[in-house]
Amino acid sequence: MSAPEFLDGRMLIDGKQAEASDGAFLDAVDPATEEVIGRVPAGTTEDVRLAAAAAERAASAWAGLPPRDRATALVEVAAALRAERDRIVDLEVRDSGSTVRKLRLDIARAAESLEYYAGLAGELKGETVPATARGLHFSTREPYGVVGRITPFNHPIFFAAGKMAAPLAAGNTMVIKPSEQTSLSACVLGEICGQVLPSGVVNIVTGVGAVAGDALVRDPRIRRIAFTGSVATGLALQRAAAEVNVKTLSLELGGKNPMVVFPDADLEAALPAAVAGMNFSWAGQSCGSQSRLFLHESIYDEGVARVAELVDGLTVGDPRDPASDMGPVNSRAQYEKVLRHIDTAFEDGARLVAGGRSLRGERFPTGYWVAPTVFADVTPGMRIFREEVFGPVLSIVRWSTSDEVVAMANDVEYGLTASVWTRDLATALNTVHAIDAGYVWVNGVSAHFPGTSFGGVKNSGIGREEGIDELFSYTQPKFVHVNAMTR
Ligand code: NAD
Which residues are annotated as active site (predicted)? Predict the structure, then answer.
């Protein structure tokens, strides 16, 4: 086996591989070993300025291409990503700590997203409206110009590559700022875009949020920002943007997602799904994780015991090993944050039934390892009930009436996903209707379906992604009123 690659990453600005203007770098740390496995430029305000200027220069030629030509370029990026799959996965596993099995799927999803929006490029249609008898009143969809995209540390290549598809298909150019925790794959994406796309169409600026991210939001040339990350950062972005000019922001933020199991549910399927829905293969670091499991009192004890047994049976280990169900959490900061949340659960009186500690000793001499954890008897007064952990911690809540469980499910600031388990159609639909969420599974968890729009309500965000709505969200309508048919 060849030695793992040390990636000396570069940004992509105006079609060229670039270091930061002041020459500074950030280390990329493997969360399993705490070794430095690469470095990326610590992009500066000046780098963002150069990237935004390049994107602005490239904008009119890119928007002026026939949609089919933009689509062809996206399909070429997808093919190049697939060709680089093993290299990207190898870097990404070590950079993120997420398991190799799932990261392969992220590359596939990113490539599929590029192909999906390439296929939709011809659907950038407007409307005609019979507003007057003789006039022609029609709209066109105009790109914004330069779109800024800021991505979180989980699913790095999917968020960087997959989510550039819709803005580019719609005729925008871009500046992408990946998370400083997991930027290596974005540097490889920069190599690919540098070869496949015209200069300036995609620019990638690595760096910390408070510098490169903030500069991107404040750049007056960037009027459309797409953000995925935490609520606190989303709010900071709204404030910063509002200090500069009028910008359109879409926000894909956090979740504290409920899974509600009714007494008639198929428990053989529901309880393993509760564990799968926690996305332990990402160490729980997925926004859609069902981190609150509501079990009816009639199935509560049986359900708690089975879920604890399943979680105890997960194999925690080297994320490069396909046999591992879970690797470390992503960074030291994330590790300390998850352990603090576990402490609050103990302090508030939740009952530990699995995990509940960091993993140390011979098998885990270094790294940010937390045992997959389950707390039972969680109640709405506890911090673990309402705060997003974004880690491998599942809370189980007992309920007795449908009104009570819906009220508890909604009693948080979030509203991203939900999952409802019952064999009764009326119960399913009534509960779906009553729960605050943007994406709901009935007798299912986790899966995203092509063409269906994903996003949250309440503090989980603004806007929808993954369907045709995402494509349209990168355009603004222009209505045209033609008098030529009058005499
Ligand atoms: P984060 O908010 O800490 O960081 C996200 C990005 O914002 C990073 O690139 C960071 O550098 C940048 N950033 C930080 N401060 C900034 C500032 N002041 N100005 C501009 N940019 C700034 O989030 P994270 O820890 O990377 O990701 C975890 C969060 O993301 C969780 O809350 C999770 O639920 C959420 N998330 C949501 C979705 C979704 O689709 N709804 C998907 C994945 C993750």
Answer: 252
pTM for the model: 0.97
Q: Superfamily assignment of 258-447 in CATH?
A: Aldehyde Dehydrogenase; Chain A, domain 2 (3.40.309.10)
pLDDT value of residue 487: 56
Rounded to the nearest angstrom, the distance between the alpha carbon of 178 and the centre of ligand 1 is: 9
180 touches ligand 1 (CB under 6 Å)? yes
pLDDT in tens, 444-468: 999 999 999 999 999 999 999 999 9
Active-site annotation holds for 112 = no
Cα of 179 to ligand 1 centre, how many Å? 7
438 lines ligand 1 (CB under 6 A): no
> Where do the structural domains in the chain lie, given as residue ranges?
7-252+461-479, 258-447
| Active-site position among 19, 92, 252, 387 | 252
3-state secondary structure the chain: CCCCCCEECCEEECCEEECCCCCCEEEEECCCCCCEEEEEECCCHHHHHHHHHHHHHHHHHHHHCCHHHHHHHHHHHHHHHHHCHHHHHHHHHHHHCCCHHHHHHHHHHHHHHHHHHHHHHHHCCCCEECCCCCCEEEEEEEECCEEEEECCCCCHHHHHHHHHHHHHHCCCEEEEECCCCCCHHHHHHHHHHHHHCCCCCEEECCCCHHHHHHHHHHCCCEEEEEEECCHHHHHHHHHHHHCCCCCEEEEECCCCCEEEECCCCCHHHHHHHHHHCCCHHHCCCCCCCCCEEEEEHHHHHHHHHHHHHHHHCCCECCCCCCCCCECCCCCHHHHHHHHHHHHHHHHCCCEEEECCCECCCCCCCCCCCECCEEEECCCCCCHHHHCCCCCCEEEEEEECCHHHHHHHHHCCCCCCEEEEECCCHHHHHHHHHHCCCCEEEECCCCCCCCCCCECCCHHHEECCECCHHHHHHCEEEEEEEECCCCC
113-154 pLDDT, tens digit per residue, is: 999 999 999 999 999 999 998 899 999 999 999 999 999 999
Nearest CA to ligand 1 atom 26: 152
